[in-house]
Design a protein that fits this description.
The chain contains five helices and no strands. The relative contact order is 0.06. It is elongated, with a radius of gyration of 28 Å. The protein is mostly helical.
Amino acid sequence: MWNPFKKKGDPAPDVAGKKEPSKNETIEERLEREMESLPAMLKSKLKDPAVKKRLLDIAKRMEADGVNFKSIRQMKKWMKDHEKELRAENADAQPKVETVVHEGPRIGRNDPCPCGSGKKYKKCCGADK
């Protein structure tokens, strides 16, 4: 994390057991390390394997394009440049929602019950609703 009070020559201290990222650390290892510092809401979302896989895929694509993960500006620029692609991929993954269409005439509260009892719908089959 960036510290405005740290002098340029000072090495980063080991804060709360966090280790500094090594050069040969993989994206998966970095994500696991960074998950501890995320808010609880995001941690719970990343427990879903599909979400975690999607995040890893995006991170790998960013790394392949040479994005510096320490620079928020570079990451935001990359996301903006690839926004259409990411939305298209996300739309394919989500199932389509279909509208329920009721067949037959609509039954009113005061209409006779379709079960044939002779009672009003509100006193017979519609009493539970």
